[in-house]
Design a protein that fits this description.
single chain, 464 residues, mainly beta, Beta-galactosidase, Chain A, domain 5, 2 domains, ten-stranded antiparallel beta sheet, five-stranded antiparallel beta sheet, 4 helices, 12% helix
């Protein structure tokens, strides 16, 4: 006879039978209670999200968060309801100094701080979700606010929930979308990697599109080039011509910041106009890197003396893509039907019509570039055209050949005002090969900035 704790095998069998029935009931209860939160969450969805903006960041002025009595950024978490789950989503607070510039550091570390009305909260529109009732929010929070994200074009909306906590805050999202490596002068994001030219901090030397965006993670870009031809006339020096290339456009990295949503890289720029005119200090420019795009605002500066002496000016900026063995295609606003890149591509291209975007797509991935020029330039008669060149000395494309894509700006001497002009330059990585209409989202990001509305939800209710 086998004994176990004083019970014989028959008694043990009875106990085991009861234990099995009890365990079964417990399991049912556990399943039931595990299902309850999802059911409760689903029942608490007040309005489903309808926003369709994929690439857009959401920037909320911290002035709109004035209802929060606690301002320490380390105590905050951001949540969104998606597919019946309320989860933390990536966000960051970015500090701005009294002049409005983003605060960056030598090491790029995002350190906690106490925000004021000059700072901002940043997250991605694609991470927002459904509207929910306050009853589904984590009960340990101190205060909460509902942030509605609204497309000004069609009114489509999504929501996110900002919560402050006491001494112990729940885990935040582990996702980080982009980071800048100052030692390698490169940026790695979810959809792409960018390498910059050594000593030419503002000019790209390489680009790889990640498999997550349909790319092959191989370099598709060999560099960036600039060509500016100018004619000056100024007594008593007479008339002279000057030509600038990318070698005359310099810069140095003066700070950066890596956050979960975006990386910020600050470069101090300069332009050498030649021996008769002083070097132009281009000021500092911040480039912003998100998971699928990067914004490189350019500052075109022209001093009063240079404008007064300027008689003629043409600007050309291009990106040099590696063609390789595989078929690649090109589209832009003036050529929406697209063309296959080959030795006869330029013959089929409208290069004179003004447009704001171009796209390149191939086995290495798909990228789309937007370039918005100041309205003052158009009003002055500055003409923008397309540049597309094929490096094809033998009339047959070789695997190492490249093609150059970009813009030309003519009649720049017609500008009436000296000083600095801000140019909106952006690159987007599309998660699928280009199809007609795919440019709508990236163009909307610059033309129609998402709006936000913050509603104070106060502390948790007494009965939950």
């Amino acid at each position: 006879m086998v004994r176990s704790g004083g019970f014989d095998s028959s008694a043990s069998a009875s106990v085991r039978s009861q234990a099995v029935r009890y365990s079964y009931r417990v399991a049912l209860l556990l399943v039931f209670h595990a299902a309850m939160p999802l059911a409760a969450l689903a029942a608490s969805v007040a309005e489903p999200e309808s926003l369709t903006r994929f690439h857009d960041p959401v920037v909320v002025s911290a002035a709109a968060l004035a209802s929060f009595t606690m301002r320490a950024t380390a105590r905050f978490r951001l949540y969104a309801m998606r597919a019946g789950r309320l989860d933390p989503i990536p966000f960051q607070f970015d500090e701005r100094d009294p002049s409005g510039d983003l605060v960056v550091t030598d090491d790029g570390v995002a350190r906690p701080f106490s925000f004021d009305g000059n700072d901002e909260l940043v997250f991605m529109a694609k991470d927002a979700g459904d509207r929910v009732g306050a009853d589904v929010l984590p009960g340990a929070y101190v205060q909460a606010a509902e942030i509605a994200i609204i497309d000004p074009v069609d009114g489509r909306t999504a929501w996110a929930y900002l919560l402050s906590f006491g001494d112990v805050a729940p885990p935040r999202s582990s996702v980080a979308y982009a980071s800048f490596d100052v030692a390698g002068n490169s940026v790695r994001a979810s959809f792409y990697t960018i390498d910059y030219m050594p000593g030419r901090s503002s000019l790209m030397a390489g680009m790889r599109i990640a498999p997550a965006a349909g790319g092959a993670d191989v370099n598709i870009l060999s560099g960036t080039r600039i060509l500016v031809r100018m004619t000056f006339g100024l007594a008593p020096f007479g008339t002279w011509r000057s030509e600038l290339t990318e070698k005359d456009f310099g810069g140095e990295i003066v700070g950066f910041k890596n956050g979960p949503v975006r990386a910020v890289r600050r470069v101090r720029q300069r332009v050498d106009l030649g021996r008769f005119l002083p070097e132009i200090p281009g000021g500092t420019v911040d480039s912003l890197y998100y998971f699928s795009s990067f914004v490189t605002p350019s500052k075109f500066s022209i001093p009063w003396l240079a404008l007064k002496a300027l008689r003629e000016m043409r600007y050309e900026g291009v990106s040099d893509f590696l063609l390789g063995d595989d078929e690649m295609h090109y589209w832009d606003g003036a050529n929406p039907a697209g063309i296959r890149i080959d030795s006869h591509a330029v013959e089929r291209l409208d290069t004179t019509s003004d447009h704001e975007w171009w796209a390149v797509s191939g086995p290495g991935g798909t990228c789309l570039h937007t370039f918005v020029i100041p309205s003052a330039w158009r009003n002055a008669g500055v003409a923008r055209g397309t540049v597309l060149r094929i490096d094809d000395s033998d009339s047959e494309i070789e695997p190492s050949a490249r093609f150059s894509v970009g813009y030309s700006l003519q009649d720049m001497h017609r500008l009436q005002r000296a000083g600095s002009y801000d140019l909106d330059v952006r690159m987007y990585v599309l998660p699928q090969p280009y199809e007609p209409g795919a440019e709508a989202g990236p163009l909307a990001a610059s033309r129609f900035v998402l709006q936000t509305r913050v509603k104070d939800l106060g502390p948790p209710t007494a009965v939950r």
